[in-house]
Structure formats: C-alpha cells, structure tokens
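Replying to the earlier thread about multi-chain prediction with a worked example.

Input:
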Amino acid sequence: MAAVRGALDLLFDAVTWPLGGTRPLWGLILVSLLSGLWMILLFKTASPQRAIKRLRRRMGAQALGMLLYLSSPLQVLRLAGGLLWSNFLYLGMILLPLAVIALPFGLTYGQLEARYGRGYPAAGDTLTATVEYAVDPPGDEEVVSPSRGLAPLPPLVTIDSLRQVSFRLRLEETAPRSLATAGEELPVGRRSLRSGSIVYSGAETPSAASVFRPGNMIISPEARDSLRSFRVSIPGRDYHVLWRGWSWLAVFLVFSTLSAVAGAIVFKVRV
Amino acid sequence: MKRREFLRLASLSPLALLALRSGIARASGRARRVIVLGIDGMDPGLLRRFVSQGRMPNAARLMQMGGMRPLGTSNPPQSPVAWSSFITGAGPDVHGIYDFIHRDAETMAPFLSTSEVTDSGDSIGIGKWRIPTGGADVKLLRRGRPFWSHITDDGIPASLIKLPVDFPPGAGRARILSGLGTPDLRGSQGSFTFFTDDPRALSDDTGGGIIRAVRDYGDGLYECRLEGPENTMLESGGKMEVPLNVWIDRGSRGVRIDVCGERVVLGEGQWSPWVSLSFDLIPGISSVNGIARFFLKEAGRYLKLYVTPINIDPRSPALPISSPDHLSSDLARAVGPFYTQGFPEDTKALSRGVLSDAEYMQQAEIVLAERMKLYEHSLSNFDDGLFFFYFTSLDLNVHMFYRAIDSESPLHAQVDMGSFGDVVADLYGRIDRAIGMAMEHMDDRTVLLALSDHGFAPFRRSFNLNSWLAAEGYATLGDPYSRDQDMYAAADWSETSAYGLGLNGLYINLRGRERDGVVAPAEKDRLMEDIARRLESATDPATGRSVVRRAYITDRVFGPDQPPWAPDMLVGYANGYRASWETTLGAYPEEVITDNLDPWSGTHCTSPAVVPGTLLSSVPIALDTPTLMDMGRSVCSLLGTSTQPAHGRDVFDDEPETRA
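Result:
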C-alpha cells in the first residue's frame, strides 16, 4: 500500500511540478482540465458506446413521438413509459463506467484535497493538534519534543480515557515545520514551498483507506507501538475567481466539466 | 445629420452614459467622496476633554480643518430612534421607531421596534416534520426613504458598512452590511450560554443569556448541548441543539471542546477563535449555520465555560444581513468571520456577573479589533461616492464603564482604577486612530464627517416609573406579591390609567385601544398634562434633585397622527437618572428610586437636551445648531445629487433651506 501511495504522490508531484512556481489556482486548473479529459476517455473505454448511441436515438424518437401524438393520450402514455424504461437502461449502461472511474476519481480527489484543499498556514497562525497514543499518554513534558518551526502552547489537555493529548501549535517559521512526538517526526504543512505540493495535516497507521488520504503521513513501524494517530486542524482555502471566493472543489468541478465536454466533442464520446 | 457626425455622436453617447453612471458628471457637488464615520455615543464633552488632554490628535486636526459642533439628537435619544432619524432625516412620526421596544395595545405584548419575522403559516405536514410552503419573511419596520437612495439614484456609489437600524437591508443599489438591530441566531439581541457545575453560579434568570447546569461523571467529560434557534420544520416546535463534548484536564487547567467536527483547546482565561456551528433543521437535508466563540473561565474544581451569542455566519448567512447578498461573505473571506449581531459587546454577561470587568474588556477588545479590520478593508476599497462606517464599541463600553469616570456613581469606589480608570479615554483614543485612518484616505475632493447619535450622561439612580405611577395613584396593584414580575403581572388594569414600557415610554391605558383600557379618550389630554406636571416636579428624596427634566406629550411634539404603537408620553430624564430595568418590562418594584448597582452605569435615555451628539467635519459647518436629522440632506448636497431628501437642512450651507 505504501508503494501505491508513493507512486501516486510521485505522479501528482510530476503533474503539478510545471506550475509549482505560480499561484496554486493555475496548478488546480491544469489538474482539473487533465482530470476531466482522462475521465471522459476512461468513460469512452469502459462504456458500450454503440449501445448508448442507439439508446439515445431511441430516446430522441420517443420524445419526438410524444410531441407528434399529443392528440392521442394513450400513445403519449405508451411512449412516456418507453422513455422511462430507456432512462433506466441508460442508467444501467453507465453504471459500469462510473464504477471504473470511481476508484481513480477517489484517488485524485484525495490528492487534490491534500494539495489544494487546505491553506498554507502563515507564521503566527495557531493550529490545534491531537496525538492519539497506543498506550497511556506520557506526561506533559514528554508529549512534544523540540520541534521545527512550531511552538506548542499550554495547556496540553490529556484525555486519559481516549489516550489522547490535544494542544495548540503556534507557527513560528514559514517552512518546513515538523513536530516530534513519541519518537516520530511528523511534518505539519508543506515540505516544499512550491504550490501544489502536499499539505500534511496528520499521521496514521497504515490501512487500505490511507491511500485515499495522502495528507496523512504513515507512522513508521518503529513508532506504531506507542503512536496511533496524529491530527492537525489546517483550515481550508478559497480561490478568487471572478471577484468571488470559491472552494477548490467548485473550481475542480467547473474546469473538469469543461474539459470533459470538450473531450467528448473532440473524441466523439457518447455520454 | 451627416454620416460622420452621426457616428461621432453614437460613439460618444455610451461614454457620456458611463460618465453619468460613475458620477464623473457631478459638477455641482462640492465633494467627489464623502466619508461618514458613525460613532455611536461619542459625547461632545468627553471629546473636548480628551482632545485638550492630547489623547485625540486626529480629532483635534479635524476640528481645525472644519469644525466641531454638538449635534442635536432625536427624542427620545435612543440609538434605534436616533439612527433612524439620521437615515430618514425625520423624527419618529415619519420613521415609526419610538423606542427599542413597542407594545401591541391589543395584547399588551412587547415586540422589537426595528424588525419582525412573519411566518405565512402555510405548510405541509409529513410525519413529525412541517414543510413550510409560504416561507418566513423578515421585515424592516423602519419607514421613510433613506437619504442614500438619492445618491444611488444618480448612479453615485454608496457603501454603508454595519449600518444601524437596517436589518434586513432593503434591495437597492447601495452596498449595505447590517449593524445595530441585527439579531443573533436565536433571534434575540444577544443571548450568551454559560455551562457550569458550580451551584453558586446557577440561576433560572434568562435575561441576556442562559446558564446551563452540566456534570462530570468522573471521566472528565461534560456532555453539553448548545441551544440554537427554534426548529420551524418540526411540528412540535422546540429549539435546535448541537452536542458539545467538553473534556476537562484539571491538571493542566484546560479543556478540549469537540463540536461540529472541530476541536478547540482552551486554557483558563483564553478565548477561542470563531467556531462554525451547524444546527440541523432536518438532519442530512437542511441546516442553519452560526458561529460562536468560547471562553474558559475555570477548569479546576468547577467547569465554567462561556459561549458568546451564536452569531449569524457572514460566510453563509441564515438571515439576510447584507445587500447584495454576497457582500457579507466577501467581507468575511477578506478579513475573517466577524460579529454580525447588532450589540456585539456582551454587556449582559458583565451585568449578570458571568464575565468580570477584565474578561468583558477582553471580549470588547476582540470586537473592536475585528471592527477595525473590517473598517481598514472597507476603507481601502472605497473609491468614489459615499462611505459610511459604524462603530458601536464606544457606546456599549462607555455604558459599562461610565462608573470609572463618574465619581458620584454608586459603583465608583469598587472600580479597579489601576486597570479600568482609563478605559473610556483609551476607547476615545482608538476611535481617534480610526479618524486618522480616514484622514489619510482623503484628497482635496473628499469630505470627512465623524458624527454620533447622542452623547452620554451618568446613570446613578434608577427611576421605577411604574412604581411612581402606582404611588401617585395612576396605577393600582391587584397582586402586590407579583410586583417584581415582568409584563404587569401585579397590575389591576381596571384601576390603572397609565403604565410605563421601554426606556422612555409612558402609555395611557386608553379605552378602545388598550386591551383593558379604562381612560375615556376625552380624559386623555387632561390626564397626560397632569402626569407630565407631576413628573416634572418629582424629586429624588435622597439627593433633592429633579428626576425628570421634561415630559414630552408625543402628539404635541410630533403632531396628532401618531401610529398606535407610539407612546403617549416620552419621559425626558434629568442628568443622573434613567428608567429602571424593571420599568422597561413592566414591573412594580417596592421603592420608586433606587441606586443603580448595575455596571451599566452610563446612559443616554434622558431628555435629548442632556445628551447631544457630536459632529466633526473636515469642511466648515455653517449652522450653529445642526441636528442628526440634517445630515442626510447635507451629505446629498455635498455630493451634488439631483434630488434631495424632503426633510432636514444643509448644515454646510450659510443659508440653508429648511424643509418641513
């Protein structure tokens, strides 16, 4: 699983690299356009294009038929029933391609959310961190060892029943930042200042689901006996487009849809 | 017309239209830009004092540039009334706002004077849910034409940020963010929540906030529920709530609050940033968003956790707080979330002892810092036309700390003068910095006005108007054991000819108008004259001073055609006196006049002559006695609008035309 994650990280690093020196919006637009394109091509490959073409013609005929026989309610009802059935067939036909797209889309979503979904906290900002231990939490002075670019603020709130310690972190430097706890050094925020690089907001023990959460580091095997998870609240970010602030998801949906529509026209994909 | 000439004209006309729209064609205006700072409660006497002490260098500079005058306020001099008069250029007879609260004479129920929420009542019931089909409507009750409509009608931009008495803002071309009068999410003017297991702090008093008893069952977890607005989609009604898990660590004297997917860590004496709250109307389908801050007072033997009133989230407002709609979210994106409720400083929490003086000042500082951020951002984006910005901090904080500058206040000796002796002066200094920022933004065609709706007076003694009416024989108590209860629980209406409600209002229990009216209409004038004469001669037995400077019979001040919610008389209290809190909601305490022992120690709900406002201007003020009602017309005149408000005078004109 770690290998898959590493490969995905590398792939998206490579895609976002060319625009890493520009504002993150441009990188997000680029990835959105590429995503729309591969999704439509994947749809073309996985879907029965001829059957969709036939079905769409039939649906068109049924709609026109209803207009033609407006004076005959029975005929209109029969055609409407047919149209409804065609819609069901259509939904059945696109079920498989959508299932095929779902996995890469989930992986892309996780990557984009980790790279463009969170702000890059500035020096002076305060974040809330929670460390969950596999054993009883250590005493206050052992929770956080000297860390880079971060200053833990009192109080350190220990919740024995949950084996958790929560505290705030004041960011002191621009980058890079990391927090040392339970013998593990955990990155907080970006490792690189280039836009589009992953913003780390936690750490977890490996599982199949962790491949969808590239913003979480994998806790090293040596630390797993004492550390279960680590989470930092990094606020989301907005993108200013057309005088308004938009979430990364809104930007992604608009630009991926645009490229998917363009791709469907160019590559003659029946949707 | 030759072809070339036609083409030339055709190409020029869009430019001319554009020029007209952008205000370039405003040749007649004396100013291209007018900045109006609305500083609630800036007192001319205190201003002069702090200017002479060198604490307000920018105000001093502004006084040298143009001038300073006391500004005549409204009658009564209450903020909603006064700002409505500023907006419409007229008195309560035109804008319809006579007090913070009015009453429905048929039901005797009080209601907020500035806005109302109406529900069409049409709905479809599905199980326990009630799906409204007609929708609820929030309505501004202020009447009259606002002065800026003359400005925007000429295509001149107008931006009014934190505008008082304009909730919900009307649709128009002005950019407006509502200020004073904007409710919190519970629909009140500000209702805090306080979670504690300290039995000494528990109370069933719900004025200004709710105190909730909570308990730790030994695992360090307090399972709290934060009450939100009414669930209008539930057939049975009831308040919406969000669960709040508060984990306490007594060793580190801190808590972690888990709420709506967020974790907040706080130590004793610390304030949280804004936390987003989502109240489910129908789980998973519909919700209402709000924001609140948390303050941890104590995490030792007891938990004491204060939660601010739940504010409407400016990023996704549950009620209309700006025009255009997206203005509030644009501002929040630029400067971060901010207090949207009209009264952001939590004076009630201080009055009820939930917050100490120091804790209240921390909260007030958060409010002011946010407001200054909003001001800086809005000012830096102002290019042309009218810019109005409203500051509330001076008013609310002087209300609470007048006891620090009033040596005759019953609470003066208890004020920690080392910490709070300079609070008022420091606040004036902060406002001076705001004036300075606006001055930096000026050019030779910019006019800067800093004005207030009223000044301030001490509130040393509370006058129980209803008790006085009972003592003078104008009211009879049917149930003397209920005299401390609100809404006239003690009154025997069949023997009551007058009653007090609100901060300055006195009403005749008129037959045919009031639910249990007994006074014949023919008797009303004589009765009012009698009450006015006796009020004006009432003295405080403890000091020998007059309590009421003047009692104003409403229809003699404003004319005979008053709306049914208008008080029959406006009681203009003398310096040092004000209606008691008990009077405002219809109680009859034992004593008529008592010491005011509430930290709310400054007032302006007196006679208008006691508390004039202030006008500072960067251009000479021609009138010796300008009033708040003149300012809208004066701003229009400065900008050279083609039409002008029907009321008011131009205070910058040597020979102003007076309008009725």
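The radius of gyration of chain A is 25 Å.

Feel free to reuse this layout for your own posts.
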